[in-house]
Design goal:
The chain is about 0% helix and about 35% strand. By secondary structure, it is mostly beta strands.
């Protein structure tokens, strides 16, 4: 999977107004798992303020647990 710039594209919009969870990369080199809130046009994560620059879909979970 490749990183997608938030300048180029946002995650796919779902019926509930949010995207699926994705991995995001911030301007300070931090990684987080979150989703995008299309109603409020912002990323959903209460504890950080650094700017998200890129995102990528989560990988498929393992078939066996």
């Amino acid at each position: 999977m490749k990183w997608i710039s938030v300048k180029d594209k946002l995650p796919e919009h779902k019926r509930n107004g949010f995207s699926k969870k994705v991995v995001v990369f911030t301007e300070y080199g931090n990684y987080h798992m979150t989703n995008y809130d299309f109603e409020h046009e912002r990323w959903c994560h209460p504890t950080y303020t650094d700017t998200i620059t890129h995102w990528m879909p989560l990988p498929e979970p393992p078939k066996e647990r």
